[in-house]
Amino acid sequence: MTETPPLLNVSDISLSFGGVHALTDVSFQVAKGEIFSIIGPNGAGKTSMLNCISGRYQPNKGSIRFREKELIGLRPNDRCTLGIGRTFQNLALFAHMTVLDNIMVGRHHLLKNNFLTGSVYWLFGARKEELRHRAEVEDIIDFLEIAHIRKSIAGTLSYGLRKRVELARAVALRPDLILLDEPMAGMNLEEKEDMARYIIDLNEEWGMTVVMIEHDMGVVMDISHRVMVLDFGKKIAAGLPDEVLANPRVKKAYLGEDDDETAADDAARTGEVA
């Protein structure tokens, strides 16, 4: 039986800013239907990795393939059209617009507006398509339980609700792969529990593959299928959540622990005697 290729295949990605190496030879694969989390200390290169996948950054070397199509060189808009959506660590909503209008922005890549069919479309199809897109948006609003704020100005909402609206805008694209950059940052416990439930439902019920950065280790270990750890731009571990959590190199990166096993591993790599 032929093995199913990964939905996302990242190979030997390196990214530098001047003399600073943000990522060094990072490789991983994400299967269709996974919740794949990227963790690591501050400055480890997690957001830089998402930016390389989404097209905000162009890596110095390496390959990123989505459904076996090379993404390097494609513009962010082209990647959205292929079915990649994302949220941002720092909220990127249009603060002066309503929640409904912010979410509708997420549908713009799906609008029909090519030159050859444009005039006919606007005469006969625009109203019908607008109604269809609004129906899709209303489904998302109901799913994320934000109907009560649908006409509110985004900039007037609490931080937790704005994070939910940003997720709604990313979901509006109906992506096959959604990149979530710290979706639960700044939330209280109840808001985190709600967001975790939404992410699980997007994965299981809406069929979205998730690549997520998150600092809340409890959430990561509870909802992730696999986890990768970055430290100083390098991959130091990857695997099932429990395996990664028990990895001595991960403990060292997060807690500064340096036990005998870690020291022996370091010695083996450098050729020194522990």
UniProtKB/TrEMBL annotation:
Give the record's GO CC terms. Answer: plasma membrane
- Native organism: Geothermobacter hydrogeniphilus
Instruction: Give the transmembrane ranges.
Output: none
Supply the name of the protein.
ABC transporter ATP-binding protein
The root-end lineage is:
Bacteria, Pseudomonadati, Thermodesulfobacteriota, Desulfuromonadia, Desulfuromonadales
- InterPro entries listed in its UniProt record: AAA+_ATPase (IPR003593), ABC_AA/LPS_Transport (IPR051120), ABC_transporter-like_ATP-bd (IPR003439), BCA_ABC_TP_C (IPR032823), P-loop_NTPase (IPR027417)
Q: What SMART domains does the annotation carry? A: AAA (SM00382)
Q: Which residues form the ABC transporter domain?
A: 8-257
Provide any one GO MF term from the record. ATP hydrolysis activity
Key words, A-Z: ATP-binding, Nucleotide-binding, Transport
